[in-house]
Design goal:
Blueprint (H helix, E strand, L loop, with lengths): L1 H16 L5 E10 L11 E2 L1 E14 L4 E6 L4 E6 L12 H13 L7 E7 L9 H16 L6 H16 L6 H8 L4 E6 L4 E6 L4 E11 L3 H19 L9 H7 L5 H25 L3 H17 L6 H11 L4 E7 L4 E9 L3 H16 L4 E5 L6 E3 L1
Parallel strand pairs: 4-6
Antiparallel strand pairs: 1-3, 1-13, 2-7, 3-6, 4-5, 7-8, 9-11, 9-12, 10-11
Helix pairs in contact: 2-3, 2-4, 3-4, 3-5, 4-5, 6-8, 8-9, 10-11
This protein binds alpha-D-galactopyranose (GLA).
Alpha-D-galactopyranose binds next to helix 5.
Length: 382
């Protein structure tokens, strides 16, 4: 939580740089309620920024030098702001360097910074710790350079860092949620129009995230492969993106697609429709309606998009059987990672303990359960 992260950052900053001129920034992770793999198809998603953050304490550096200390890893990243492009490195440094490089490409004159990071966004759980690093670094750098922050531009720079430095051809959802998230709201993002509408979450709603602790090494290349399959479907159907096809048209033209490509397209097309229906249900406070759509989304990700696994299916099954749960689905890139559970506040502890107790017998693994509150997007904190 931020109130424990901030003192860690302040202490470490004092040790590394002395205590002068420190400013504090924090960017949240996110969980996606519904809209799996629709973002890179120009579609719709409905994520929520959560109270797990990357906190960055920083000040302006000297002579265009950037010096960043990662408290959790006990590692430095040091580089000259004039030579970032030649420096892709691997690991977390691809995110810090990548976003600064992308912002420079957009014409921003960035000063170097001295900074210290600490975070509590669980890694590898599908909660976007990487987007939080990107947004914290970019936001701090722009602010300390005396520049206006355009939150959409910052999110796009973060996405370009992922594409060019990290090699994941991700969509825009994670960076958008971490940049533009709003406490007590989900964010309905139109990934083509690049607009985000905050949709209030009813006060009795809670989000529980259960990490399956399955982390597949191949997840990144399988993610890119799914994206290629979606692009192949759009090309075959003669449209810019699967966003441009509705369910009826797809059904009528399904014969034009190979069976695998057809299933991928069917997931994306039906999922886009589900996201819009879920946002509508949320607006009218119909949490049961949102939950039903989440269950249908999980089935579609499992059967048509084929990115679930036995362990994620088990977590969804356990959660769905608990009284007070509206719905559950896998979330994030897939092939492991987490499920998100939408639950009435009174059943939060009940579903958390059911997941912890019943998952090991069917999987041989422990589930790591996070009870999440909503959060605002990246900001300067005091
Ligand atoms: C990852 C990507 C996102 C999105 C999701 C799947 O989190 O970074 O852009 O595609 O997977 O919905």
């Amino acid at each position: 939580m931020l109130d424990t992260l901030v003192p860690r950052v302040v202490t470490a900053f004092g040790e590394r740089f002395g205590s002068s001129e420190l400013r504090l920034f924090a960017a949240p992770g996110r969980v996606n309620l519904i809209g799996g793999h629709t973002d890179y198809n120009d579609g719709f998603v409905l994520p929520v920024a959560i109270d797990r953050h990357i906190a960055l304490g920083a000040r302006t550096g000297v002579d265009g030098e950037t010096n960043l200390w990662a408290v959790d890893l006990q590692e430095w990243d040091r580089f000259d702001m004039g030579a970032i492009a030649s420096l892709p490195e691997g690991g977390w440094r691809n995110y810090t360097r990548g976003v600064l490089w992308a912002l420079q490409q957009d014409g921003h004159s960035l000063l170097g910074i001295d900074g210290v990071f600490a975070g509590d966004v669980p890694q590898g759980a599908g909660l976007s710790s990487s987007a939080a690093i990107l947004m914290a670094t970019g936001f701090a750098s722009l602010t300390l350079s005396g520049l206006e922050v355009d939150r959409v531009g910052l999110a796009l720079a973060g996405q370009r860092a992922e594409h060019e430095y990290v090699g994941t051809r991700c969509g825009i959802m994670d960076q958008f949620a971490s940049s533009l998230g709003r406490a007590n709201h989900a964010l309905l993002i139109d990934c083509r129009g690049l607009s985000a509408e905050p949709v209030p979450l009813p006060p009795e709603a809670r989000l529980v995230v259960a990490d399956s602790n399955v982390h597949r090494g191949l997840a990144e290349s399988l993610y890119n492969e799914r994206r290629e399959q979606c692009e192949a479907a759009a090309a075959r159907l003669g449209v810019a993106a699967l966003r441009d096809i509705d369910e009826e048209t797809l059904e009528a033209r399904a014969w034009e697609l190979e069976p695998v490509i057809r299933r991928r397209a069917r997931h994306v097309v039906t999922e886009n429709a589900r996201v819009l229906r879920a946002a509508e249900a949320l607006r009218s406070g119909d949490l049961a309606g949102v939950g039903e759509l989440m269950k249908a989304a999980h089935a579609s990700l499992r059967d048509d998009f084929e990115i679930s696994c036995r362990e994620l299916d088990l977590l969804v099954e356990i959660a769905s059987g608990v009284e007070g749960v509206y719905g559950a689905r896998m979330t994030g890139g897939g092939f492991g990672g987490s499920v998100v559970v939408l639950v009435h506040e009174s059943a939060t502890e009940r579903v958390a303990s059911e997941l912890r107790e019943r998952y090991p017998a069917g999987s041989g693994l422990e589930a790591t359960v996070h009870i999440c509150q909503t959060a605002d997007g990246v900001e300067e904190v005091s």
